[in-house]
Amino acid sequence: MKLVKENIISFKRKGNPYVKLGVGKIVLIKKWLDKMDIINYNINDDYTIDVDDGVWLDKMNLNNFPDYIQFNKVTGYFSFTDNNITILKGMPKKVGGDFYCNMNKLTSLIGAPEYVNHSFYCGKNIKKFTEKDVRAVCKVNQYIHV
Question: In what order do the strands lie in the sheet with 139-140?
């Protein structure tokens, strides 16, 4: 029996082939961000989203964010006032401006940002939160409005 040595040709792909095919998690994330008119974003290797701007999702009739949406850092404000959000899944870890989660259906602040550089607004939810509730989950540099 004669052995044949095979050459394996390796090559580097430019870009994500799933994106080129219009499928995959990155495509889902981009479609959702575009639908929500979110601009100046970067999708990180771990699929979290950094936004070099504010995020305005007020009165969008949102129930909760899709499972594939996870914000990381937002340099401006992050607002989703007057929706039907019940949990804070997908919220950014750090917000450079104000964080608005008021007028939703929240019963818990689990999943809130770890850090908000300006003010935190969480009034008019199913549960009436206290300043102590907010400070237990988030470092807020300025004011807390409950």
Answer: 41-43, 49-51, 71-74, 94-95, 115-116, 139-140
Q: CA dist 128 to 4, 47, 110, Å?
A: 74, 33, 14
| Residue 80 · residue 101 · CB < 8 Å | yes
Beta strand 41-43 with 99-100 is unpaired
pTM of the model: 0.84
Per the CB < 8 A criterion, the answer to whether 38 and 60 are in contact is no
130 pLDDT more than 60: yes
User: Where are the domains positioned within the chain?
Assistant: 42-145
Say if residue 16's pLDDT is above 90: no
Q: Is the pLDDT of residue 140 over 70?
A: yes
Its sign, for the CA torsion 121, 125, 109, 34, is negative
